[in-house]
Amino acid sequence: MGFLKKKILQKGGRVKIYDLAKELTEIKNYKKFKFDYVIFCHVLMYIKNKDIRKIFRHFHKSKKIIIITCFSNQTIINKIFAYILGHPRPHKDTKTSPKQEQYLFKKFFYIKKNLNFFFFKVLVGNVKK
What we know:
The protein has helices spanning 3-10, 49-60, 76-84, 98-108, and strands spanning 37-41, 66-72, 109-116, 120-127. By secondary structure, the chain is α+β, with helices and mostly antiparallel strands.
C-alpha cells in the first residue's frame, strides 16, 4: 500500500486505485466510478497530450471533484540526481512536458494551490464553471 493511500485511510477516507497495470488496479474502469478526489502523481507525463485532454474532459463533468497533479520539473538537477540514483535516462518516455501538463490543467481546472518544490510541482484544482 502506498504512502498517500495509508494517510488517507488513517483519516477515514476511502481510496480506490486505478492503474493501467492490471496488478496495481482496484477498479476496472475509472469512468464508472464516482470520485471526490483524483490524484495524478508523476503519471500524466507518460500519456499523450490528446489522451490527457480526454481524461480531463471526463473529470470535468463532475462539478465537485478536486484534482491534484504532481509532476517533475525535469530540470538538469532532476536529471543529475536521477543519474546518481541509477536512472541514466529518467525522462526518456515522456510524452507530455511539465509545461504542457500545467497548461492542460489550467485549461480544465481552476487552480486552488500551486506548490513549487524546485524538483517537482503540485497543482490542486477544482472544475472550472
